[in-house]
UniProtKB/TrEMBL annotation, chain B:
The chain crosses the membrane at residues 21-41, 129-150, 162-182, 214-236, 271-290, 319-339. This is Sugar ABC transporter permease. InterPro entries: ABC_transporter_permease, MetI-like, MetI-like_sf. PANTHER family: ABC TRANSPORTER PERMEASE PROTEIN, INNER MEMBRANE ABC TRANSPORTER PERMEASE PROTEIN YCJO. The keyword Cytoplasm does not apply.
Length: 431, 349
């Protein structure tokens, strides 16, 4: 706790001392500050080029971008807001949107971005909370099953399609046969070595949903009881545990190269691994939809998105930048430059990799069909952490029903606590 | 100058000299602690900008509440007594709302289950003290052994000293990641070595994945990482023991073991006390290794109090509750220290 808070306090002090004024001008243009999380060189430079193109496209606004480490990003935002020095534009991880809105950090985008522009975006790319739009995504990330055609051929498995993903029984059968070949100690790689709650929630909530459960009751968003520990969720928990009991998944993968090296026949991971996997498997690589566990295939939607801070002095300028980013040609550029999945049909059509017949089109189709957003609630961090611990305990042998009951109680309490602080008036902007 | 003026002058100088340190302590230790203490009575969130509302003792109540249920056996399958699921009982009964099973035992035919509102905190508390009991003797013994080795006047002892000290200057995160590889069940070197030495009779041990082995594994790795530091302190202590004492012991015909037991150990008494205290303090703050290697698992087997505080306070953004964990932990440790000092005073009388 000490170190993170220290950094946050330090940052707050820094910005308070820096005292950048609202009306800074650069080359006669009004300056807009922009914060983004550090997301790797490729995405970083793609973002830099997008800013350069925006500045070339008009003469009124200038953007000063700043990259902050992803680990302490949320804390930096909190510190900056305490010091009254929030940037105008910032990236926000979609599940955090509700929490930031509740804290009064974000400005609604309803009047700032034309409804027609918003309408062409996938629902998962729209960060909504309490009926208002607060963030928009220029791209998305998506999970799929990666495997080798040769591995499936060897056991005579059917290759699933978007219309007919594997069923639970089929998937279990295939994993069992892969294990029986003796070629793989653990046929399926679920990236269980990842110690972050984010990954476990992002990766396994869709499975829970496909079984018929959910993190919270989506109808009310008020409680998890029945959704997170009901019969469907218990079926999911029991199955999830059986993956480890049957030796189909390694409880703790030693590294993230199980699929590349051929130790695992199958990997359940995101589009960001596609380049490495293509290199390793070549034409043998198959990108497949996750199985349908009973209630249709589900993939988590909603990646890092763009938002405008409530203290931004020039929301029009910030909105101009967002409108620029949401142009189909810009969506296509980002998709091709950074390998991210476009969030609109028009954007995909203009992209080399994601247009019909493009090498990464599979991801776009998967997201169009199966994407479902994580719940928009200020209690998301608590929900995510509780679910993460329930899954870890289940994987380590705890009774799935007990583990899910624990998570449910924790989530219900977190939601009740979050609700006890008065929510800001919808649309009201803190000055 | 009169005596009293001299004394006042000395006091001023003392204040002036300790000023910078006091300022730092106040700013970074005392004020944050007072703030944390104040936070424990609110429902302050980490991300919210407004300060939380006053909620009284709610956080303490959630942290420390303990209860129990007694269950009669129901007719079970094949003559074995069966019991209703405790979670079903606690979730149905409003009296036990929010309680989770912590531990259970048999009482004749009945089953008694201890309930707690935050069983993970209690487990973490036990784990942390368990870790301290394992790591403090291990690490101090290792440090003393290394110090004796380095002090023995062998060739290349400067080199050895640097080697033994090198883990201390390595980042704990890096050390933890490396040891995670070493401890890996299927590919780790430790299991490979065990299998080789035992000619295959010792199967792969799931070091970090088993409840019985996870904490000892972390203790072993922590002792290895930290021993170099205590080694240096012991070295300084060893060099402070007069050579004449050894010479006298040798003339009296003492064996190496007798010299160690009757000269070295008494000579190091102050050093040993200091090293034990320093190591215990570090052990009670165990966090990084757990966060990197096990995330508190398997089934909370390695969850520690600091890890629990960070989980609740920072990762779940419930800073008020995280502060409560820290404040209660502080109180427990303070009580232990007071008890220890009282006992020491009684002994020395």
């Amino acid at each position: 706790m000490g170190k993170r808070c220290g950094i946050a306090a330090g940052l707050a002090l820094l910005f308070a001392l820096g005292g950048c004024s609202d009306q800074r001008r650069v080359d006669g243009r009004i300056d807009l500050s922009l914060w983004r999380h550090q997301a790797g060189d490729v995405e970083e430079s793609a973002g830099r080029y997008a800013i350069a193109r925006f500045e070339a496209s008009q003469s009124k606004w200038h953007i000063t971008p700043q990259s902050l480490p992803q680990g302490g990003y949320t804390q930096s935002i909190v510190a900056a807001s305490l010091a009254g020095q929030l940037p105008c534009l910032m990236t926000v991880d979609q599940p955090m949107v509700a929490s930031f809105v509740q804290a009064g950090h974000l400005r609604p985008l309803d009047g700032l971005i034309p409804a027609a522009v918003v309408a062409q975006l996938n629902p998962a790319a729209q960060g909504r909370y309490q009926g208002h739009l607060y963030s928009v995504g220029q791209f998305d990330a998506g999970l799929a099953i990666f495997t080798r055609r040769s591995a499936l051929d060897r056991i005579g498995a059917r290759i699933p399609t978007l219309d007919h993903p594997w069923s639970l029984a089929e998937f279990d059968d295939i994993l069992g046969k892969l294990k029986a070949t003796g070629a793989y100690k653990y046929p399926l790689d679920l990236a269980t070595r990842d110690p972050k709650a984010d990954w476990w929630t992002y990766a396994f909530t869709p499975m829970l949903q496909s079984f018929g459960g959910d993190l919270v009751d989506r109808a009310t968003m008020r409680n998890a009881d029945g959704a997170l520990n009901g019969p469907a969720a218990q079926r999911f928990g029991t199955w999830f545990q059986s993956l480890f009991v049957r030796g189909l998944v390694d409880r703790r993968e030693p590294d993230d190269r199980a699929f590349v090296t051929g130790r695992a026949a199958m990997a359940y991971t995101g589009n960001w691994w596609a380049p490495d996997y293509r290199k390793a498997a070549g034409d043998d690589l198959l990108i497949l939809p996750p199985p349908d566990f009973g209630r249709g295939t589900v993939i988590g939607g909603g990646s890092w998105q763009w938002a405008i801070s409530s203290t931004c002095a020039h929301p029009n300028g910030a909105a101009a930048f967002l409108r620029f980013l949401l142009r189909p040609d810009e969506i296509a550029r980002m998709a091709d430059d950074a390998g991210m999945i476009p969030v609109s049909e028009a954007g995909a059509a203009l992209s080399t990799d994601f247009r019909r017949g493009g090498k990464s089109r599979a991801f776009f189709d998967l997201m169009q069909r199966f994407a479902r957003q994580r719940p928009a609630t200020p209690a998301f961090s608590a929900i995510s952490n509780s679910f993460f611990f329930a899954l870890q305990n289940i994987a380590d042998g705890k009774d799935p029903h007990d583990a899910l009951d624990d998570a449910t109680d924790a989530v219900d309490q977190a939601i009740a606590d979050a609700g006890s602080t008065p929510a800001p008036q919808p649309g009201k902007v803190r000055e | 100058m009169t005596q009293s003026r001299k004394r006042a002058y000395g006091r001023r100088i003392a204040l002036l000299s300790s000023g910078p340190a006091l300022f730092g302590l106040t700013l970074f230790l005392i004020i944050p602690f007072l703030l944390a203490f104040a936070l424990t009575f609110t429902d302050q969130r980490l991300v919210a900008t407004d300060s939380g509302r006053f909620v009284g003792w709610r956080n303490y109540e959630r942290l420390l509440s303990i209860s129990y249920v007694v269950q009669d056996p129901q007719p079970g399958v094949q003559g074995k007594p069966a019991f209703a699921r405790v979670r079903d009982v606690t979730r149905a009964d409003p009296v036990h709302r929010g309680f989770r099973p912590f531990s259970d035992f048999s009482w004749g035919q009945k089953r008694v289950t201890i309930l707690a509102k935050d069983p993970v905190f209690l487990e973490s508390l036990l784990n942390t003290f368990g870790f301290a009991l394992m790591v403090v003797p291990l690490q101090c013994a290792m440090a003393l052994a290394l110090a004796l080795l380095v002090n023995a006047g062998l060739r290349g002892q400067t080199f050895l000293r640097a080697v033994y000290f090198s883990p201390v200057v390595m980042s704990m995160v890096v050390v933890s990641i490396v040891w995670t590889f070493l401890f890996d069940r299927d590919l780790g070197s430790i299991n490979k070595l065990l299998s080789l030495l035992s000619l295959g009779t010792i199967g792969p041990v799931n070091w970090l994945g088993g409840r019985a082995t996870a904490m000892p594994a972390i203790a072993l790795m922590s002792a290895w990482q930290g021993a170099g530091f205590q080694m240096l302190i012991f070295l300084a202590g060893l060099q402070g023991i007069s050579q004449e004492l050894y010479d006298a012991a040798r003339i009296d015909g003492a064996t190496a073991w007798q010299r160690f037991w009757n000269v070295t150990i008494p000579g190091l008494r102050q050093t040993i006390a200091f090293v034990l205290v320093v190591t215990a303090i570090a052990a009670l703050g165990l966090f990084t290794q757990v966060d990197v290697m096990t995330q508190g698992g398997p089934q909370n087997g390695t969850s520690t109090v600091m890890f629990h505080a960070i989980q609740r306070g920072v990762r779940e953004e419930n800073i008020a509750y995280g502060s409560t964990v820290a404040v209660v932990y502080f109180a427990i440790i303070t009580l232990l220290i007071l008890a220890q000092q009282a006992l020491q005073r009684r002994w020395s009388k």
